[in-house]
Amino acid sequence: MFAPLRYAAFRYLAAGRLVNMVGNAIAPVALAFAVLDLTGSVRDLGLVVGARSLMNVLFVLFGGVLADRVPRRLVLVGSNLLGALTQATVATLVLTGTATIPLLLALGAANGVVSALAQPASAAVTPQTVPAELIQPANAILRLGMNTGMIGGAALGGLLVAAVGPGWGLAVDAFTFAVAAVAFTGVRVPAARAGAARMGIVADLREGWSEFVARTWVWVVVLGFMVLNGTLAGGVNVLGPAVADGTIGRSGWGLVLAAQTVGMVVGGVVALRIRVRRLLLLGVACMFAESVLLLGLALTPTIGVLVAAGVTVGIAVEQFSVAWETSIAQHIPADRLARVYSYDMLGSFVAIPLGQVAVGPVAAAIGTRDTLLILAAAVALAVLGMLASRDVRRLETGGDARPTATPSPGSGDGATTGSAEPAAPA
Fold first, then answer.
1. Looking at the domain assignment, is residue 403 inside a domain?
2. What is the DSSP string of 297-360?
3. Where are the beta strands (DSSP E) in 24-176?
4. Which end of the chain, N or C, is less packed with Cβ atoms under 10 Å?
């Protein structure tokens, strides 16, 4: 199960992503209280957070092009150094009492751009760090570490804000970016492709789009998750706290979210051991569990039911996450992988703000309970839609495009990548 850790490049990647997740869990807690201390306005907080999300969506396609053109280690190190700079600036402004909403908006937008540049490179570099047969356990180990980091980071963020203030929490977040940059220097893998700079950005995007739509299972799953993510963003993130306020209380809701994270850790351990021929089919089918939490909020909002639902959802999410990342890595040529990931991220994330904005007026018009039931049905229909695809059901673990030559254990360097032409969907 832990064979991927024999490879130096993978160890450095896992360490960097773990540290990144610790910082990413600290940042929202610290930033939220920094803005509330500054103006006391939830609207201002929404603007600051929204500016980062918007830039992330707008620039993620460029991040995919960059990660397929430039050595991915360079992208990871550079983006984390820029992230350290932006967050250190935010921390300095907050600690010195000179922060303003326009400044925080600008820095939040800059950090969103940095994140968009890093995400496709971080996802695409994984199959270059281990042999093809170890991609599934490698993804499971990464997810396990990231979820553990999320738990620890959220707890640390709360302690820092309570003990020394949000400014120091943001300073620690900046420090984690710098530590991650150092870790990523050890991710020594070959460039994804040679001669990429001779192509224009539009041509690169067109080539990535052709690869994205060449396999039906890829765009079908992304389309399904466009619906899923928009639905869950509204149902769980917006209506969930509102239901909790009138039933289990805010501390109870925090317990439910913690239970979901614990379920994700358990799910990561389970994903390390699972060996099935049709891993994507299993992962997609597990997403029916997402409707369980929505149904619990609608029908039986008690602490026992919601905690159990949270654990179930967490376990299910990890099965899909590992299945998806493994399938993408095994079936997409390495020289186009980051661009395919960028289209995946764009499609999967674009509906999140729409769901968050739309769910309030709908709930006001027809009631929270009925809205949650409709959202649960939408989740089930989205999963059924994905499973209706023959390509999703029949895709087998393996690969029609070996992503890298086999790296040597204990070495950070791999051989030159050889990419195959895309095969027709099975």
1. no
2. HHH---HHHHHHHHHHHHHHHHHHHHHHHHHHHHHS-GGGHHHHHHHHHHHHHTTHHHHHHHHH
3. none
4. N
- Structural tokens at position 17: 């992503």
Give yes or no for a contact between 185 and 28, defined as CB atoms under 8 angstroms apart.
no
Same domain, 16 and 115: yes
Q: CA-to-CA distance for 186 and 122, rounded, in angstroms?
A: 13
Task: Tell me the DSSP string of 123-151.
Answer: HHHGGGTS-GGGHHHHHHHHHHHHHHHHH
Q: How many residues in the chain?
A: 426
SS3 425: coil
Q: Domain total for the chain?
A: 2
Judged against a pLDDT cut of 90, whether residue 308 lies above it is answered with yes
- What region, left, alpha or beta, does residue 401 occupy, with left being phi > 0 and alpha being psi -120 to 50 degrees? beta
CATH of the domain at 252: 1.20.1250.20
Query: What are the tens digits of pLDDT across the range 355-407?
Result: 877 887 888 889 889 999 999 999 999 999 999 999 999 988 765 544 444 45
The answer to whether 218 touches 212, Cβ cutoff 8 Å, is yes
Structural domain boundaries, residue 267: 200-398+410-417
The SS3 assignment for 403 reads coil
Q: Where a domain ends, among 133, 155, 189?
A: 189
Each residue's pLDDT tens digit, 314-361: 999 988 988 898 888 888 887 787 788 888 888 887 887 778 778 878
